[in-house]
Each structure stands twice: as structure tokens, then as C-alpha cells.
């Protein structure tokens, strides 16, 4: 159990049966009054925000969270299959729980999967991934339209803006936090 | 940790505080920081020290000095409150307290106005001072510092800013939450503000207002939504003070109650005190505002993080 005095930014607590991460924290104590712990929190499953003020005697359960190293194997329709790299156990996560992450996931990629009470709720990808461009309009030399970017499609089906010199078949690095192009990668 | 210009500013600030009180014929006193007994206060958790306690405030000793015949006294000292940490809180912080006999809480409000004006005269021209033309600059906000400052009763403040009345908030036991959430952010944003006349339950050492037994003559000074000082007309009726302490002790949990007890000697000496008023001001917070900083830790020679 955590007590209110343990609350701080980044701490994970369980509220009404769901895991929350504290994204903003403020201690306040009006003169002669009691200590108040004001928390902004994000539900780690739904992403919903919650703002709550707690008192010193409030207690919090520690959410049962576990991170496991897994390999993403393949997807079939909306089912994404993963394998635990230590015990080879396989699990399936539905696409809707993966959000934007599916834009950056390629077969056999290693990642951490977060479990809450033995149910997978999130994956954390490497900060940068390298993906092959599968569709790009050729760069017309001497193009004077002045545009400094063009859309391309990468192997996962994700479409993003890149500089005009990127061609089909190139490998590019993408920042998984923002989804933005970083650089062209040489093999 | 403050750099050298910051340390110089802090020193000049302390010097200016002291010279203001000395000019007004206040006697500077220094009472023990470590004491065997603290006044029973429900919401203050003391830091223990070898069976005694580090003071949460010098109030007890200073009121005993008043009762012993001092007219006007002040003290700049370090105080300790366990578990208080945040942008505006530290477990160890600097307190300024001053007490006057033959005075009420209005006199202390006038002292606050005069003190700030004296600080500005001494420090206003220094590079680090976030004051320009008698206005305090806090981000985009310009707070006019000329006296007289705003005065707003707690009753009126709740009527103006809170979704429920003060009576309702007291009945629901949500006074603190509503004060912090709805009321405080609106206080002292154009000019400093005195919030005054608290429900008597919230001023265990304050005198009742004449003709209004449910109100205590207590006030808080706010600047930019930040509470800077808490003052009151002192309760000098030792029988009533005993009852208030008894109530405070009753509300404590068993563990706390075992460590607290009725301050008999204080109550005995209180009987010798007539009309008086006293105030405690958070020195680090005031310095934080004057230096245009965001947190009290930034205006100390050493903050807790500087030991890591």
C-alpha cells in the first residue's frame, strides 16, 4: 500500500480497480489546514485523465504491473501475436489496445509488453525504428514547386511526410514518440 | 542552491527585515528551536529530536515572553514541519514572527503593509528584485503593492469564488479543498489581499470577534494566490484556550495524542496577558516572490536536493 505521503509525479497507483500513473502532482496545505495532495493522473488502460485531491490518511493499492520482454511475431486481421522471449509463451493483443504503435511494428521486433493483473495493456517500442519505404512518388529533379516534403508509405502501411530525396526501397528512421521522419539509413 | 548574487540578495533581505522591526522599537529575541512540548495543533506534524521536538513555530515561547512583560518582539528563525514538501513547502523553512501587546489583528495588517514598503525601499533597486515602480512582476502578472491592500472576509470570499457557502463547506468538511481549489487562486492577484475573520474552529489560538462568537479574529495575507502570513488577535482567556486545546487534542489520533499534552505552564502564564496580537510570515515565500522565483527551494542557500 502507498500512503498519500508517497504520492509524486510518475508514481503508479490503483484507483477503482484500474492502474493510473500520476502525471502532475502538487502538495498544498492551507494555513492551519490539513495537507492536501492534488494529483493529475492518466488511466494506463483507457488513457483517460483524472484529477483528484487526496488527504493524508488516504491509502492506495500498488497496481499489479509487470513488464515482460517479448517479440512481436505477426498479425492476423486485428490480432497481434507476441512471444515471451524467456519462456516462449505466446499471447495475442487486439489492435485497438496498441493504438499508434502498430504504425512502427514489424515482424520479429523486440519490445517490452506491460501487463496489469496478467493482462497485456501496453507495449513500449524502441524510441527509433527503421522501416522500408514501400511507396513513394519519384523526386522530379529540378522540381521548382518549392515543397520541401512529400508523403511516402512504409512497410507497415503508415504514411508520413519525408524530404523529397527519399525513394521507394530506402530505409528510414522514424521517432516512435512523434511518428516523424528522422533520417535516411544506409544499410 | 543560491549563487553569490542570490546569497547577497537574501542577506540584504534579512538585514532589511531586521532593521524595519528595530526601527519600530521591536526587541529581537531568539528562543530555543528544540523544545520538550509543542502547542497542540491538529494539522502540524512535528519532527522529533531525542524525545523533544523541533519547533513548528516559535509561538509558544514568544507568547510567554509577552506575558512576562515584553511589549513588542520579533524573531527570525528556522521551523520544522514533518512531511511538508512541494513548491511552497519544505520540512525546514524560515519563519518571521512578531507580536505586539495592546494591539489587534488590524494593527498587524498595517504592519504587513509597512514592512513590504520598507523592503521595497531597501531592495527595489537591486538587480535581482522582481519589482518595478512599486509593482511586483510575476510572469505576465503585475501586482500593485501600494497600501492600502485589499481586505476580504472569508464569508465574502466563499460567496464570491466558491461553488458552496462557507457554512456549507464547514458542514461538509471541505473547507480546505474548496479554499485551495477555488478561492486561493483568486486572492491577491491585482494587489495583496488580507483574507480575514475565519470560522472559530479554524483559529485555535485566536480571539473571538466581539459580538460574533462563531468568528475568530484571524487573517491570512495572500499575494498572487500564495499564502504569505497568518496573524490573529491573540486569545488571552486561558480558560477558553484550555477548552480549544482540549478540542484539538480530542481530534488527534491516539498516536499523536500520546506525544501531545496540555501546555499547563503556557496556560498559567497566558492569564497574565491582556490584549495582544501576533503573526507568522513565511520568509522564504516572500523572498521567492521578491526574486521572481517559482519555488521556495530556489531561494535557500541549501535546498534538500542540494545534499543528494
Q: How does the major sheet of chain B shape up?
A: 9 strands, mixed
Name given to the CATH homologous superfamily of chain B: Bira Bifunctional Protein, Domain 2
Percentage of residues assigned to helices of chain B: 25-40%
Biggest sheet: strand arrangement of chain A: 9-8-7-10-11
Arithmetic mean pLDDT of chain A: 91
Chains forming the largest contact:
A-B, 15 and 23 residues
The CATH class of chain B is identified as Alpha Beta
SSE pattern of chain A, N- to C-terminal: EEEEEEEEEHEEEEEEE
Alpha carbon gap, first and last residue of chain A:
50 Å
Note the overall shape of chain A: elongated
Full CATH superfamily name of the largest domain in chain A: Nucleic acid-binding proteins
Strand content of chain A: over 45%
- Under CATH at level 1, the class of the largest domain in chain A stands as Mainly Beta
How confident overall, as mean pLDDT of chain B? Answer: 94
Quaternary structure: heterodimer
Structural class of chain A: mainly beta
Query: CATH topology of the largest domain in chain A, which one?
Result: OB fold (Dihydrolipoamide Acetyltransferase, E2P)
Q: Quick one: how many beta strands of chain B?
A: 15
Provide a brief overview of the structure.
With 187 residues, chain A is mainly β. Helices cover 2% and strands 53% of the residues of chain A.
What topology does this entry show?
The complex is a heterodimer of chains A (187) and B (308).
Chain A: E1 2-3, E2 12-15, E3 18-28, E4 36-43, E5 49-55, E6 59-60, E7 65-76, E8 79-84, E9 90-94, H1 95-98, E10 109-116, E11 119-124, E12 128-136, E13 150-154, E14 159-162, E15 171-175, E16 180-185
Antiparallel strand pairs in A: 1-6, 2-3, 3-4, 4-5, 7-8, 7-10, 8-9, 10-11, 12-13, 12-15, 13-14, 15-16
Chain B: H1 4-23, E1 27-28, E2 34-35, E3 47-49, E4 52-54, H2 59-67, E5 72-80, E6 92-101, H3 105-123, E7 131-132, E8 135-138, E9 141-144, E10 150-153, H4 154-161, H5 166-172, H6 175-183, E11 193-199, E12 208-209, E13 212-223, E14 226-233, H7 238-251, H8 254-259, H9 264-270, E15 276-282, H10 283-290
Parallel strand pairs in B: 1-5, 10-11
Antiparallel strand pairs in B: 2-4, 3-4, 5-6, 6-15, 7-8, 8-9, 11-13, 12-13, 13-14, 14-15
